[in-house]
From TrEMBL:
Protein name per UniProt: FAD-dependent pyridine nucleotide-disulfide oxidoreductase
UniProt xrefs under Pfam families: FAD_oxidored, GGR_cat
InterPro entries: FAD/NAD-bd_sf, Geranylgeranyl_reductase, GGR_cat
Residues annotated as domain Digeranylgeranylglycerophospholipid reductase catalytic: 187-257
Length: 400
């Protein structure tokens, strides 16, 4: 039977990064992924701010395209923020996860694709992990000193089988990868575009991200909760086609891929973070931001934190993962609670007018400030926009 120091279940951004950091430290690491290649669950739009590359040591060849514009379209208005400098990029999600897995192998770790964690039993000095190889339909047993749940929204290790999941809010996103002509592509290149407002995507938002020359990611996401004003919502495909037809006005386009996923979030971050020799990271502990659905950077940050706890555990410097949840909460809890409250209003209460008004406060701001608010959650900056908004209003009244 193979023996490992660490088995990481799930080769998303969180699992791949955690396995890579531990393999780099010289531990015997196994990274498991249920799909046989990274093209299978290529679900994420992967729009991120540019710091991700330097913060997590990712090479530029994982970038599909850069963005220096941010566009918000509400039911009756379109607003554009622009910067001379790139503020972020759209990653190639498939390439990125492949890169992380390759790094694990490079540092002496093992990567088993097409292999699913199905069970585990914790013993005195290790965990016995049962894996199903989906390709050969066989069961394999391995032992590990530490088991990492990086299964994303599934929480497949920590909440597998008999264990109870916390109550979870859900949101579902579907995305088409489409090939368009040069004119349509150029109109949307260099920009992250979000379509809000009830006309475009009630109870959620739709988006257009540039992927690479003549290829766009267009998608729609819905928060699966009751809205006080919206009674009927059509299937997500309807809103993606509406976007393609009415917003992009693309007459000839080719669908290259359709993918999607459901995110699950624990209100107040009440997930189980660690249990004996098991530790959970990424979406398995609700690191995805519930207001905007950005989760790649945050999953990787949790992997960074968890890998330090695992290192100390393996070195005998600590005998449990106690303190991990506290550290995670010190980073995420306050900001995530605020985002959750805003998300609740936006996706289950707000009128179309209010959705529009929220963005009018950001008008006149630099793109850098908008990025600080929407990606770094510096909501205190909104007051700056609010003052400018009031001055604009007063000026328009008195200068009439
Ligand atoms: C439609 C959509 C668009 C998004 N767009 C963005 C965006 O633009 N920017 C952004 O930052 N975030 C975005 N997100 C969120 C982001 O993709 C996630 O938050 C992020 O991928 C979470 O990383 P993770 O490693 O925790 O989990 P995941 O990426 O979900 O990875 C979990 C992995 O575990 C594997 N797995 C599950 N169970 C098992 C098992 N039993 N055995 C073996 N393997 C298993 C899965 O196959 C998967 O590969 C988007 C999400 C969706 C759904």
């Amino acid at each position: 039977m193979d023996k490992f120091d660490v088995v990481v279940v799930g080769a998303g951004p969180g699992g791949g990064h955690c396995a890579r950091l531990l393999a780099k430290k010289g531990y015997k690491v196994l990274l498991l992924e249920r799909y046989k290649d990274f093209g299978r669950n290529n679900f994420s739009s992967a729009g991120v701010p540019k710091e991700i590359l330097s913060k997590f040591n990712l090479p530029e060849n994982l970038v599909g395209s850069w963005w220096n514009r941010f566009v918000v379209v509400t039911t009756h208005r379109k607003r554009i923020w622009h910067s001379k400098e790139n503020q972020g990029c759209v990653l190639d999600f498939q390439k990125m996860r492949q890169f992380l897995a390759d790094e694990v192998s490079c540092h002496g770790g093992e990567v088993w694709l097409g292999c699913r964690h199905i069970d585990h039993i914790e013993r005195d000095n290790d965990v016995l992990v049962t894996i199903k190889n989906n390709l050969t339909n066989t069961k394999i047993e391995v032992t590990s000193k530490v088991l990492v749940d990086a299964t994303g929204a599934m929480r497949g290790v920590m909440c597998g089988k008999e264990k109870k999941k916390p109550s979870l809010a859900t949101a579902t996103g579907v995305e088409y990868l489409i090939e368009v002509d040069e004119k349509v592509y150029n109109a949307h290149a260099g920009a992250l575009t979000f379509l809000l407002g009830h006309k475009w995507m009630p109870k959620g938002y739709s988006w257009v991200f540039p992927m690479e020359q003549n290829i766009l990611k267009v998608g729609a996401g819905i928060y699966n909760q009751h809205h006080e004003l919206i009674k009927e919502v059509k299937p997500l495909g309807h809103y993606i086609e509406l976007l393609i037809e009415k917003y992009l006005q693309a007459k000839n386009y080719k669908i290259l891929d359709i993918h999607g996923e459901t995110l699950r979030y624990s209100s107040g971050l009440q997930d189980t973070y660690n249990d004996g020799r098991i530790i959970a990271i990424g979406d398995a502990v609700s690191t995805v931001n519930w207001l905007g659905g950005e989760g790649i950077r945050h999953a990787m940050e949790s992997a960074d934190i968890a890998h330090r706890f695992i290192y100390q555990f393996l070195e005998g410097e600590r005998d449990s993962f106690d303190g991990y949840q506290r550290q995670m909460h010190s980073i995420f809890l306050q900001k995530w609670n605020l985002c959750e409250r805003l998300a609740k209003r936006k996706y289950s209460q707000d009128t179309d007018d209010l959705v529009n008004k929220a963005f009018s406060y950001l008008e006149g701001m630099k793109l850098e400030d908008v990025v600080d608010i929407l990606f770094y959650y510096k909501f205190e900056k909104i007051s700056k926009g609010l003052v400018a908004f009031i001055l604009r209003k007063l000026r328009s009244i008195f200068l009439k």
